[in-house]
# Entry
Amino acid sequence: MKKALLVGINDYPGTSNDLMGCVNDVNDVRDLLTASCGFKVEDVTLLTDRDATCANLVEALAALVREARAGDHLVFHFSGHGSQVPDSSGDEPDALDEILCPYDLDWQDKVIRDDDLNRIFAPVPPGALVEVLLDSCHSGTGLRDVVGSYRKPRFLPAPVEILPRGSSAHRVRPMKRPARCVLWTACRADQYAADALISNRYGGAFTTYFCRLVGQLGTSLTRRDLLGALRKELKGMHFNQVPQLEASRKLKRAELFAA
# Structure
């Protein structure tokens, strides 16, 4: 069985940090999965904007995992803001948890922490594969302004008053990778992921070129080869972000969306 949960959030109420390309991203990934990767339309769930609340996102992730069996392939894609909040479990050297920002973000209870992702994906049975694609920022520096184009970082700074004294958004670690998982991230831990106007259409630089390259090169290329092509393409288009791939050596050498 192949199942996917795709989340895209442009609208962040109460902030001046709305994005433009996240809903386009999840539509692009849905089209890629159903047209080229063997996913059925009815097995791909989309959550966008006001539907992508913290509660809905957690429940949808739990549902994605609940009936997983050996041999299944689960995909989770998130396009939206990333940020940091004080560590809730004491396992972070910098006292900060990396988070995904839901539509109803409140900086306390309504956040999706890296610890939450690990907890949710922990029950995935041996033999099943989880492929996670995160098109959001996990850093506080690194995106240079480019004159004449729309490029906005997908990073939402937390209110200073909730952060531990002496903490810095520059000291971050990548989102943790759950076991039995392939993790794609849009950038390094010290970089922003761009929300950009590309060919007169808004989208995440990572997601846009990920989908384009798979469309051009096909799904028979390996994950490692796709990573190299992605990095080359983004560098050639003057995006100051370097996509990352975390997986076992075997999975890196396997064909895209294959175990």
User: Anything to note?
Assistant: The chain is about 25% helix and 20% strand. Residues 2-253 form a domain with the Rossmann fold fold (CATH 3.40.50.1460). The radius of gyration is 17 Å. The chain has a mean pLDDT of 85.
